[in-house]
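[09:14] KT: can someone run the structure on this one? pasting the chain below
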Amino acid sequence: MPRLRTEAAKKSLLRRVRRQRLSYITILPSLITILNGVCGFSAIIFAGKYPNERIGHFSYFAIAGYMVVLAMVADMLDGRLARMSKSTSSFGGQLDSLCDVISFGVAPAFLMLKMLEGKMAGLAETNPVFAGFFHRFIWLAGAAYISCAAIRLARFNVENEEDESAHMSFMGLPSPAAAGVIVSLIIFHQQTLPDLLDKSTAAYAVCENIIMYALPFLSLGIAILMVSRIRYPHVLNQYTKGRKPFAQFIRVLLLLAFAWWELPAALVVVFCSFAASSVAKRLYYRLIKKNPLLQAAPTLEADE
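[09:31] RB: done, structure tokens below
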């Protein structure tokens, strides 16, 4: 009997602790996290509308892409506010990951599928066999992207530490950066490409086909990068905190000027270069640094 009473007391204590944990929630970071999910939901709504409809200069696809970018800003702010106010919690981390699945998993994949529906309609008339194969491949790429985004976020929740020093880098491509690769290309296709080239020209058709056919392959590639063990830097923590060289300040100013001049092109450069940077660095150290023949080649050429 005493043992049963002890176990019952332990269970009662655990229930009280759980209720207490759910009784106190940091309001402002949680509201910003919810804003992240609402932006992702809005992106899905805009992506589902008829593609030729526009609001001023912006197409619905471009607005959906900007909604995902706005979700990235909210995702950046909520964690920063929680750590600054020393109010990080397991609830906030779980809520953040749930909203990230919507904004950086489902929304980019759905936007890619809706973007390629028009291309599939044209292909079905000219080459139905290839259109059927490409349609299945697009669905496979979208499903793989969503699955890897969910796995990436679940792994982050398990391995995450609340200490600020543990947030200097990420294991695998972060889901906001992966979503940025997709939505930046879509925004560029919707806004910048029609301004650069006339839609009736062959150059426009070539550029559009490159972007359209590259999207599912890029989705598969960044899906693999999300679940990989390639380390990516935390840009804000590594490159903006503390004292930095003056040259880095100049680079940031040039990047901001480029974004002010042509935001869609700047988004493509930033997200694609970030996704490729760690892969290029990994290949460099694997193929060149550890290969004595490749290291000796420049010396031999200089001697000759």
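[09:33] KT: thanks! The chain has one domain: 21-161+168-244.
[09:34] RB: yep, looked fine to me
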